[in-house]
Amino acid sequence: MLHWFPLEELSERYTQDWARWFPQVFCDQGIRFATHDGDSLTDIIESGEFLDIHSRPYFAMSQIMSYVEWHRIHKDASDILLFADLWHHGIESIPYMKWLGKHNIETYGIFHAGSYDPNDFLRLAGCDSWAWYFEQMIASFVDFMFVGTEWSKILLEKVTPKLGYEKIKVTGLPVDINRIKDLRLPEKKPRIVFPHRLAPEKNPIEAFLIANAVLSNDPEAEFYVTSGKTPDKILSSVRDDRIVKEFRVLQKEYPGRVRLESFPVKEDYLSFLSTCSVMLSTSKQETFGYGTIESMAAGVTPVLPTKLCYLELFDEDKTLGYSYDDSDEAVELIEKYLHKPHDLSDKVEKYQYQTVIKNMLKEMGLD
């Protein structure tokens, strides 16, 4: 039987969508499964970046407790476990039960990011002294690790040199490309959108400098920072005061043209996104690029650094000019597309969630 361990559902993250999509595909494929939901402390991110730092371990460990209770009664069953995030608190319980009890348990899951990435927040926070060993432990016992891009695989291989590079499967990550296309609005405006967290690894200060250059040259241009957080939380949750300071300076320089936009409802964000012309990334760290994928599906032209996972979006078409090597090139590209955006949505159709999840199930022998 398949056991599904979702992430906690948060409206400001894709986790809420994943909680629906995976079971939907399991049912469509006729797979018998059980969902191990956890107990959550909050339905918003009170502290932390991607997920709440208190609710994440609480939720994850309660999921492990749920499975342990099930397995104690059904210990002779052949179980297949699928984790929405393998960086799962308490996951060491699985090999403990498997090997000591000689039970038949297969384990699969998605590796998003971790201390193996030199620009990940775990590394930046100094957690790599212990997180590296946790990641090695995970890689040592799982059957397969699913990742979004070849770049992510290259980074993760550093954790698994002796454990089997073949364990890492590049499947992409699930996005509802069709829904994004359906929510498009007809009118495009000369808007630059920065759809990332205001975190050091996303390098927003460079984005502000690039936006400043464009705004000074084009009086119609606008610059938006978007978030699923409530307006009062967007800046108050930023852990680097310099980022807030530089954003305030930019806002003061261009009143009404530099804005923070809050979208607690995902559909509202996707509709707004479709009115933008250019999506800007200045990231130092990116292993998949949800904001980029969604922007491209919405018909927004991406302007991206020539590094990380971004070049995988273009293949032979990267010479068409959507990536930059320095800030001056980024300004030129934005000015090129701001009033004449390119629709590149066909490049991301392969990430439609049904296709990606079925690819994962195929690797697990459940097709």
Task: Please provide a written account of the structure.
The protein has helices at residues 15-28, 55-73, 93-101, 121-124, 128-141, 150-157, 177-182, 204-217, 231-234, 241-253, 266-273, 290-297, 327-337, 353-363; strands at 2-5, 33-35, 79-83, 105-110, 144-147, 168-170, 191-194, 222-227, 258-262, 278-280, 301-305, 323-324. With 367 residues, it is an alpha/beta fold. The chain folds into 2 domains: 2-174 and 352-363, 3-Layer(aba) Sandwich (Rossmann fold); 178-349, Rossmann fold. Strands 2-1-3-4-5-6 form a 6-stranded parallel β-sheet, with helices on both faces. It has a 6-stranded parallel β-sheet with strand order 9-8-7-10-11-12. Helix 8 links the parallel strand 7 and strand 8. The chain is globular and about 70 Å long. The two termini are 14 Å apart. The relative contact order is 0.13. The model has no long low-confidence stretch (mean pLDDT 90).
Question: Could you write a compact summary of the structure shown?
Answer:
With 367 residues, the chain is α/β, with parallel strands linked by helices. The protein has 14 helices and twelve strands. The protein has a six-stranded parallel beta sheet, sandwiched between helices.
Keywords for this entry:
alpha/beta; single chain; six-stranded parallel beta sheet; Rossmann fold; 14 helices; 367 residues
List the helices and strands and how they pair.
Layout: E1 2-5, H1 15-28, E2 33-35, H2 55-73, E3 79-83, H3 93-101, E4 105-110, H4 121-124, H5 128-141, E5 144-147, H6 150-157, E6 168-170, H7 177-182, E7 191-194, H8 204-217, E8 222-227, H9 231-234, H10 241-253, E9 258-262, H11 266-273, E10 278-280, H12 290-297, E11 301-305, E12 323-324, H13 327-337, H14 353-363
Parallel strand pairs: 1-2, 1-3, 3-4, 4-5, 5-6, 7-8, 7-10, 8-9, 10-11, 11-12
